[in-house]
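ok here's Mor transcription activator domain-containing protein:
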Amino acid sequence: MKYRNAKELLPEELLVEIQKYVNGELLYIPQGCAKRKGWGETSGIKSMLSSRNAVIRSKKMNGSSISELAYEYNLSYDTIKKIIYRKI
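and the structure:
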């Protein structure tokens, strides 16, 4: 992120108003019009984990124990329980 001088970008009236609130401090202004994507949507990890969790639930329903699933997926016993018992 590149810092830019507000004096070069903003109209004088707006700059004076902003200075009333944050005089001399750094101010972050987030992007306004772009809709922010949720966690894991860009990389695809969210859908990958959802698919994995569905397989884990299916295997549990077909008789696999929580301990077996924890070993197979290299996850803790409690994590497997959270995946299985989470309301979808």
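+1. The helical segments are 6-9, 12-22, 45-61, 66-73, 77-85.
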